[in-house]
Amino acid sequence: MPNQDSKHIVASYDRDLEAIQAQIMKMGGLVEAAVLDAAKSLERRDEELAEQVRAGDKAIDELEERVNEECARLLALRQPAATDLRTVLTVMKISANLERVGDYAKNMAKRTSVLVQMQPIDGASGAIRRMAKAVEGMMKDALDSYIQRDVELAQDVRMRDHEVDQMYNALFRQFLTFMMEDPRNITACMHLHFIAKNIERMGDHVTSIAEQVIYLATGEMPEDTRPKSDLTSFETTEVEG
Amino acid sequence: MPNQDSKHIVASYDRDLEAIQAQIMKMGGLVEAAVLDAAKSLERRDEELAEQVRAGDKAIDELEERVNEECARLLALRQPAATDLRTVLTVMKISANLERVGDYAKNMAKRTSVLVQMQPIDGASGAIRRMAKAVEGMMKDALDSYIQRDVELAQDVRMRDHEVDQMYNALFRQFLTFMMEDPRNITACMHLHFIAKNIERMGDHVTSIAEQVIYLATGEMPEDTRPKSDLTSFETTEVEG
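^ inputs. structure came back:
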């Protein structure tokens, strides 16, 4: 059948791809909202909102499954080559990354339900909200960079991940201090620390989306010049006393 | 060209796929060794071995990149349909999961380099080694289940992830206790806790490989009947005094 009526085939490939991209954007919208709501529920100690975030993850998972199925169908039916093939594979990776970010938001909301039962830790939930907001902004731009094939914007997203890493490193030190000052803070700080680490990981997934965009547009993965992330594994802060 | 010389095409598709599978198995071997060595370096406080694990991650990353490229090439050249297409997509997902497990092993080795400078925590590194060993066994079986298309073995791997989760939950409580007993343990326990959490996540990635195998063999993702994982987000252990 190839070469026969090929304009028609190309047009329907484009239409299929657009439909899938629309689902990716829908998924992105849901994930962005989940991240912000998870942070908001923590700051406001709002268990109901946390519960909504947890319940909402199902819709994100289902979208990812649908994107996967439709990509597989597109590959099987249209058998795209070269750039088109690369686009479909990129779409699958982007949706996998978004799904992971959604999982982290759900996990954050779970821990919120636990944390509301504990004494709040000074300033922690505000700092976490700022981190979440930064990641959400990166995600918005990463998805825009995909739609616009905007390599510069994708590069910008990569660089901003460094700021999220710095926010995380600062929080890690702060939590250590709180725990050492008062053992009653330990359980809450462990949960808060997990949340901070999960947001830092969200940033990594968003960065991975930006890198996919760069790969799609340039054919090359960016060199690993990105300033490296979690420094706490090099942390040697010893405790006095 | 379709239907012309199709036997030849099928044969070369099989040959290509076999070459890619050989790389997946090589990758699996490297990742298994990295997980065991990372745990061993922690238990023996062996910085040199930890350094080797960190350096070795590059080879795993390169293999993943090669698998990705060769899968894309296979899709473009051979344009497989139906089951063959699904196999190629599964291979890509398996290699992505293996790469993530390798990352966690590297991260574990990084923290080992920090932990050797601190007072050891009683019994922790032995418990972590047992967790790592359990995950490594699951990984071996998950890859075997892929090669043999053995759904029963893949189901078994999924179920064993529950044991890893239980080991993690027990360690989480133990670390909380150590930190509360003596604030000088806090920094070391934070790192050890991260390591334990990372092994628990390795288990999730291995489980995801097993689920891919089930999907490949049966056409359906397993129902989510798997006993759920990290319970610490429901942890409400309040600290007395």
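Chain B is about 80% helix and 0% strand. Residues 25 and 226 of chain B are 26 Å apart (CA to CA).
thumbs up if we can close this ticket
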